[in-house]
């Protein structure tokens, strides 16, 4: 009986100690819930005078991209990421995309985190951490390849202007230093090789 009573007493003391520690921890000031210092958020840039150039998303909004400037030995090297999104195969699916991030910049995040091959962490991304890095947002419905006039269907306008989006973004990036690139690399869903050859005609 005495051994059981002693064990019960120790258990109560342990529970009381855990409760006291929990209450003490909850009374400590909490760190603000802001992104950690290791996060790598990059803002969205909308193409200037997009409508004037006819370079617009499916819904007619301006397309966008995220640019993080390089530094040091990577200041004249560029890494491009063409965001994938597939194709909308009929007007119904294209109409649904107009109300999403895949067809309108109105739904795009103001900031996104650059991670992996886009990271600026030297240990996580030793090859490209200090390069100029660009993520070109997808919003045209045809993998940056369309260039047709407005198509009206049941009162809804569709803009298939992927090629113009690509050219408008490249024109802005050339002015921001891409024309002086010593090294150019990139990745996407099978589109980059085709556009890499087209890029030379824009320089």
From TrEMBL:
Subcellular location, record wording: Secreted, Cell wall
Entry EC no(s): 3.1.1.-
Any Pfam family matching the protein: PAE
Keyword Electron transport recorded: no
Functional note: Hydrolyzes acetyl esters in homogalacturonan regions of pectin. In type I primary cell wall, galacturonic acid residues of pectin can be acetylated at the O-2 and O-3 positions. Decreasing the degree of acetylation of pectin gels in vitro alters their physical properties.
Protein name: Pectin acetylesterase
Main location per the UniProt record: secreted
Protein family (similarity comment): Belongs to the pectinacetylesterase family.
GO molecular function, one term: hydrolase activity
Annotated signal peptide: 1-27
Native source species: Oryza sativa subsp. japonica
Superkingdom in the source lineage: Eukaryota
A Gene Ontology biological process term: cell wall organization
Keywords noted in UniProt: Cell wall, Cell wall biogenesis/degradation, Hydrolase, Secreted, Signal
Class of enzymatic activity (EC top level): hydrolase
């Amino acid at each position: 009986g005495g051994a059981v009573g002693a064990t019960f007493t120790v258990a109560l003391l342990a529970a009381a100690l855990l409760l006291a520690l929990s209450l003490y921890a909850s009374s400590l000031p909490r760190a603000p819930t802001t992104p950690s210092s290791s996060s790598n958020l990059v803002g969205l840039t909308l193409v200037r005078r997009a409508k004037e150039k006819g370079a617009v998303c499916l819904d007619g909004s301006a397309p966008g991209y995220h640019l993080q400037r390089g530094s040091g030995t990577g200041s004249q090297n560029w890494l491009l990421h063409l965001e994938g999104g597939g194709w909308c195969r009929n007007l119904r699916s294209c109409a649904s995309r107009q109300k999403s991030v895949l067809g309108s910049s109105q739904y795009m995040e103001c900031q996104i985190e650059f991670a992996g091959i886009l990271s600026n962490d030297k240990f996580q991304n030793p090859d490209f951490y200090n390069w100029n890095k660009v993520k070109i947002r997808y919003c045209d419905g045809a993998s940056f390849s369309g260039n047709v006039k407005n198509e009206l269907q049941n009162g809804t306008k569709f803009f298939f202007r992927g090629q113009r989006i690509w050219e408008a973004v490249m024109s802005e990036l050339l002015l921001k230093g891409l024309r002086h690139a010593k090294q150019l690399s990139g990745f996407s869903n099978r589109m980059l090789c085709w556009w890499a050859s087209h890029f030379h005609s824009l320089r």
